[in-house]
Structure formats: C-alpha cells, structure tokens
Amino acid sequence: MKNDRRGQIKQQADRLADAFIAAGALPVETDSLMPAEILLDLYGEDIRARAFITHDAEMGEQMLRPDFTVPIVQRHMAEGAEPARYTYNGPVWRKQPRGSNAPSEYIQVGYELFDRANPAEADAEVFALFSKILRPHGLRVATGDIGILLAAISALKTTERRRAALRRHVWRPQRFVRLLERYGGQTPMPAGRKELLQQITKIGAESLLDQTPLHGLRARAEVLERIETLQQDATAAPISNEEVAMLETVLELKGTAGDVLAQLQTLAGDFPALADSTARMTARHDALETRGIDAGALPFEVSFGRTTLEYYDGFVFGFFAENRPDLPMIASGGRYDALTRVLGQGRDIAAVGGIIRPESLIAMQEGA
Amino acid sequence: MLKLGIPSKGRLQQLTVDWFAERGITVARTGSDREYAGQVTGADNVELVMLSAGEIPKELTAGRIHLGVTGNDLIQEKIADWQQVVLDVEPMGFGHADLILAVPDGWIDVTTVDDLDAVAAQFRAHHGFRLRIATKYHNLVRGYLSAQGVADYQLVDSQGATEGTVKNLTAEVVADITSSGATLEANHLRVLADGPILKSQATVFASRTADWNDAARAGLASLSQKTGWDVGPWT
C-alpha cells in the first residue's frame, strides 16, 4: 500500500512539474546534502530544530535539504542569465514535533522566477500560474505583502539605527514589539543601561572600561562603539504615538486586497513613505487583472507569512484546503529579494517563486 | 514491579537516598558498592535501578523505568516535547542549579538579552561570523534564544570547561549550569540580568511510555502512601 501511495504522489508531482515546464521553466536537480553552514548563516540556529543535520569528518556539518530555495538561487547566481524560470521536483526533509502526523520527508514541486525588470509582472506571473494549476482543487487562498511593513518602518521619523533594528526583527514579532515599545517610550530604559550611562557621564567610557578586564574576541573598540550608540539612542526622541499607531495599524491591516489598498492609500496621505509600496501594490493588481485574476477581491493580510514564511520580504501567498485544517499549506510562495541579497553578498537578484506539496493534494482528495 | 531509576553515584545519589529515607523508604545498593542494582524496603513491588543521572531521561523515554530521579535541566535538554513523554511528579528540593547566560565582565554595555541581541548583530558585522555561544545545553539555549527573538548567534559545543572558552577565543558568550557563580567570577564572566534560562533541581519524573501494568501500579500506590503523591490523574 505504501508503495502505491508513493507512486500516486510521484504521478501527481510529475503532473505539477509538467505544468511548470509548460509555463517555460527549466527543470533542475540539486544535491540532497548541503553544507549546513550556508543555511545556518542564512536562517540562524533555529533551523537546527527543523532540519536534519549530519556530520562528516571531511565535509563537516551537512544538512539534508529543507527546501530548494538556497541551491536554486546559488545555481542561478553561478550560471544563470535573466530572466530565468526554474522548476524542481524532489524530496525535502523537515523534523516534525513528536506526535505530529506530518511527514518528515515529502516532495516539493516548485517554480522560481528570477527577473528584475518588472517586479509586479513577476509577482503576478507566479501567482497566476499557481492559481491556474490549483484551480481544480478549490483551495482557499491567502495573500500578503511584508514589503508594506518594511515600508512602514522606513516611514518612521527616528534614527536609522532604530529603523534598521526594527527591520532586522521584522520576522520575530515578539522582539519587534519589544523594540517598538522601547523606541516609543512605552517601556522605560532598562535599569542596567541607565546606571551605565550615568557612570559614563561621571567618569567617561574609557576609564570605566579600564576598571574591568576585557577578555575574548570582541575588542575594546567594539564596546566603545556600542556605548556611543547607546548614548545616541538615549538622547533620541521617542517615536511619536501617531507613528507607533500607524505601524500597528499597518501590521493588522486585513480584508480584501482592494480594501487594504484603499486604506493604505489613505494612510499614505499622512505618511508619504508608504506611497511607493501602495504604488507597487497597484501595479501588481493591474498585472493580475490582465491575467484574469480579480486582484481586488483576493483575501489580503499585510502580516501574512510573517512568521511561517521566513525571509519573504514582498508579496506572499498561500493555498489551504478549507475542509482539512489538519493539513499543512498545500502551496505557498512569495518574493524573497532579501534572501538573495544575503546569498549574493551584495548582488541584487530579484526572485519570486513558490512550492506545491503533491502529497497534501492527494491527502486532501482522500479526505474529501 | 515498578522500576525506580536513581542516580548511581555522587552527592545526587546520597541526597536521593536521604530524601526517600525521610519518607520511610529505604533504597540501598545490594552487594558491593560497584553493583548497579539495589533494594527497596518500606514499599512493595518496587525495583531499584542505578543509572547515571544523564541516562535517566533516555530510560524514561524508552519506558524501561517507570520513575526516575534527575534534574529537570537534563529532562528538558534531552527529551524533545518532554511534557508528552514524562510527568513532573515532585521537585525534591536539592540539586539546585541554574542554566545561565554569561558574558565577559568587560562587556560593560551588555546587561540583558536585548543587549546581547544587539551585540550579536554588531559582532557579525565586524567579524563576519555569528557570535559564538559555548554550551552543552543546545536545545534549551536555542529554545530560549528563539523565544526571546535573538538572531545572529551560533551555538558551539562545549562538554566541559565551558567558562574557559571565552579566554581561549573559541566563544564570546557561555551558557552553562551554575550553582554558586564562583567559576564564572574566576573567569571574568558575568551573568545576564534577565534571570536564568532555566532553574533546575532534582525531580521525580514518571514515564508516560512505560508499561503501567498492575504490578507497576501496585508499586506506585505503595510508594505514594509514603510520599503523598497524587497519582490519580496518571494511572
């Protein structure tokens, strides 16, 4: 029976891959085993809790591919000319919590588009393709755009350092809220820092440092640099209530994409830095409309994918089986320019793509 | 028979023996000091198994022992989703130790996890690699830092002399168990002010995966008469 099921999944996966190939994608294969370091640098230590890691005396820590994004981006950077469309079809491995019936090994069939010429067109192409392929299955769709949140951060009238700290933690909601509360003056300065700054005012940072030996790789100059940052931050005015409220409003914006866009346009009247992202959203809607999608009617949440779809930084989408809440997302995707920027070490590569889980499609049909 | 696993050596073993003795249960090694079997008097249907404290989480998970005495630091570190595998029966009031994060004394700009996170970003920008935290408690430390939303760090494994890693330039920060803090001080390290990652003490745990047959339940009932454990909900 198990083999039958594998066969069924394989057939489904091949059908999906054929659809992507028909859309112009080049089928590519990648290694299953990849250096853990690259993924750890990219996603942080948290990935250890989600991916399988193995060790080799010569190769060091190796990770069983938890997704195809990194190897595809690397391959594209090494040899690709733009625009490029790739598709892949193969297993990925993810640790699952005890008692979960989600598989640790499953197939992903994906489509990735690298094209910097027209982001709105690229977003629309990928979403329209997934919609078309998945239409027969009657899935619920969700969309969002982390880029709007990033734009709202840029709109804040505060120090660039504070904006950078908020941007860095956009994908970690708890820390984000704590930073925002601090910068908004809602929580007082921590006692230890207040004490430190008072002492420094009294005797100076250099002589305070002279009193304690410093061991380790972090140099004295780095400590002094950060103290200067703390001093600047202590004198910076709190982010105004009005701006904190704007950011909170943006974080919680949800409804149809048309309604959200209208609300954003209103907000952009007071906060002009939002204008660019509303313009991008408008352009995306136009591109979707020409592909026959009623963009304004799509369910839209600014924060969708903020925690589950790590490192997406623009348009994001997900497809769910309405009657099977036990199943993971059937398909998901989005724009991940920030990730390619890190992998490209400064080279900008605009990328948008997504994956479908054929085994979830089959499970859904079985359960129906 | 109910199988009760207790630490096989050291202070932890002595305190465990004393703890049971105070409740009218004598647990003792049979034969020579090197034998890893024991006898229980004062409770029926209980068999004693001597194990290293580090083995007890594994034995509880496998269901080879019904009850085990070990620190909750080891349980939470070694068993993923531990609440589904073991039940916390009773903290025993000894073997106290805190899992803490400590930074070099000279990092006068760092007192909280918030500072640590900011410094991790700064460190990565300056040195081109993620700030290293030496520990043997990988799961607990990662879970804590993840919940706190700390980024740009890496865990490096240190199975002993963790406090020395900073001076040896193999780590910038340490996460370790401390009971007094004297070793930290001697190594010019300072504990972060947010409080420990975990407060640990010796604890009686019950395995949810063991075979709780009639004889094991009889053993538990017999122990509970002396210890006053409320075993209703889990047998």
Main sheet specs of chain B:
7 strands, mixed
Largest sheet of chain A: 7 strands, mixed
What best-fitting shape of chain A do the alpha-carbon axes yield?
Answer: globular
Domain unit count of chain A: 2
Report the structural category of chain B.
alpha/beta
The total count of helices of chain A amounts to 15
Top keywords for this entry?
heterodimer; A: 368 residues; BirA Bifunctional Protein, domain 2; 2 domains; three-stranded antiparallel beta sheet; 15 helices; 12 strands; B: 235 residues; alpha/beta; D-Maltodextrin-Binding Protein, domain 2; six-stranded mixed beta sheet; 13 strands
Walk me through the topology.
The complex is a heterodimer of chains A (368) and B (235).
Chain A: H1 2-22, E1 26-27, E2 33-35, H2 36-43, E3 53-56, E4 60-64, H3 69-79, E5 84-93, E6 105-114, H4 119-134, E7 140-145, H5 146-154, H6 160-168, H7 173-183, H8 191-203, H9 205-210, H10 220-235, H11 241-252, E8 254-256, H12 257-270, H13 275-290, E9 299-301, E10 315-320, E11 331-335, H14 337-343, E12 351-356, H15 358-367
Parallel strand pairs in A: 1-5
Antiparallel strand pairs in A: 2-4, 3-4, 5-6, 6-12, 7-10, 8-9, 10-11, 11-12
Helix pairs in contact in A: 1-15, 4-13, 5-11, 12-13
Chain B: E1 2-7, H1 10-22, E2 26-29, E3 37-41, E4 46-51, H2 56-62, E5 67-71, H3 72-78, E6 86-91, E7 97-104, H4 113-127, E8 131-135, H5 138-147, E9 153-157, E10 173-178, H6 182-186, E11 189-191, E12 198-200, E13 202-207, H7 214-227
Parallel strand pairs in B: 1-4, 1-5, 8-9, 8-10
Antiparallel strand pairs in B: 2-3, 3-4, 5-13, 6-13, 7-10, 7-11, 7-12
